[in-house]
DNA sequence: ACCTGAACACCGTTCAAGT
DNA sequence: ACCTGAACACCGTTCAAGT
């Protein structure tokens, strides 16, 4: 969906296609947001930009470099929503929720980052916000690190399922689909019945991540 | 590493390569365990088995079918280690640890399942063990389901990082590598210093998952 | 400095043909 | 019933060549 008009100001220079590093990365981001990580191929990107794949290599390197640049670009664009709450655990929880929500707002790019093992590159700014709240809660050194990592890992677990649900319309291998075939004498029928239905991820996120936050963050401090 | 001797008992029948559905899946599993998910290609598998790719399709279908079958095979092979502990939360924790440890024992297959969005297919038997312990702890219906999902999601979050570390010798995008470049006035220098070092995942697993377990599982019940 | 065309070494999958 | 060979439509990447 990038067209010549988007970089018309580059025409008339020594360049023939008027292509920029930024143009390549923005085109790549557009491809990912439209068709997911697997839609980002060198040939499709080249076609989108109206050039040959070789031109892409000249401007922005190989696919790996482009993926990294796309993640960095999205990282900058992630909304810096202010943290809410008075008590320290509430504010930490709010920062954790930002990570969760901004990832769900851009599921395709988050999936891309996940596949590329660069989730923390995408989330770094939000991790810093979370770290500040932990510092304000009185956590220092190793205990701050452990709290940060534990919270981010928990959020990450929810993200795996949250992103899964996006594309799982026909999925036969979801946990709740599999439980439909289970009949175990050690488990109550009402429990099995519950397990055949998908869970309310958002509600479960709140209580579970809150439990982790409460375990690591002292509760009585407040913040001006 | 499969050779003709492995299925010599099939020779002399109407078959020419003496190939079986089970042979294909075991060959696929071997490829994955040796070279990771990306080593499982139809051509490599065919070469390993000494046939053409088309033969693979005849016996076991396309790559998707093979991946599913590999995961099911590994699911059956996962050790049924007995749950330990007397108090309910200890036993639930033990069952959760089984999920974590059996996944780490087979990182490549777990990665494959993860990519295929079939983690719960791989872990189903261990999920059932966990569900039994939750039932024994007195949890029924929705509260049993929520506890199970919350615990599995937490374990899943740790798995993402645990599997990451396996292949992260040169990784520039790990969280602790990124924090080395951060200088934020709102965060204590000792905290930043801590964050530049990798975390002890096993220790963090114990305390974090335990916090989740304790939040969902009543603590006073015991089991004969 | 910027861009193209052709090529290489891979993929998954299908189809007609052989025994 | 079981297996092959050739082909199709894709990949990422490189290299010599053009302007």
Description of the molecule:
2 copies of one chain form a homodimer. With 224 residues, chain A is mainly α. Helices cover 65% and strands 0% of the residues of chain A. The first copy, chain A, has 11 helices and no strands. The first copy, chain A, has helices spanning 21-35, 42-49, 53-60, 63-77, 88-105, 107-115, 119-136, 141-166, 175-179, 189-195, 201-216. In chain A, helix 1 crosses helix 6 (107-115) and helix 8 (141-166) runs antiparallel to helix 11. Mean pLDDT of chain A is 89; it is low at 1-14. Chains A and B meet through helix 7, helix 8, helix 10 and helix 11 of A and helix 7, helix 8, helix 10 and helix 11 of B. The structure holds a DNA duplex (19 and 19 nucleotides).
Core attributes:
DNA-binding; homodimer; 65% helix; mainly alpha; 224 residues
């Amino acid at each position: 969906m990038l067209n010549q008009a988007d970089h018309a100001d580059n025409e008339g220079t020594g360049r023939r296609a008027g292509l920029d590093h930024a143009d390549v990365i923005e085109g790549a981001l557009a491809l990912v947001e439209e068709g997911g990580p697997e839609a980002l191929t060198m040939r499709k990107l080249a076609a989108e930009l109206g050039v040959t794949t070789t031109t892409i290599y000249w401007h922005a390197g190989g696919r790996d470099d482009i993926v990294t640049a796309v993640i960095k670009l999205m990282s900058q664009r992630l909304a810096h929503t202010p943290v809410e709450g008075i008590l320290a655990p509430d504010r930490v929880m709010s920062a954790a929720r930002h990570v969760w929500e901004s990832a769900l707002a851009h599921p395709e790019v988050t999936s891309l980052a996940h596949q590329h093992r660069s989730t923390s590159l995408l989330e770094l700014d939000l991790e810093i916000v979370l770290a500040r709240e932990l510092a304000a809660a009185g956590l220092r050194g190793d205990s701050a690190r452990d709290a940060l990592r534990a919270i981010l890992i928990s959020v990450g677990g929810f993200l795996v399922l949250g992103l899964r649900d996006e594309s799982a319309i026909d999925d036969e291998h979801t946990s709740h689909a599999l439980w439909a075939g289970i009949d175990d004498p050690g488990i109550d029928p009402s429990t099995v019945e519950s397990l055949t239905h998908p869970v309310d991820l958002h509600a479960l996120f709140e209580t579970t991540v809150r439990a982790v936050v409460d375990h690591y963050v002292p509760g009585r401090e407040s913040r001006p």
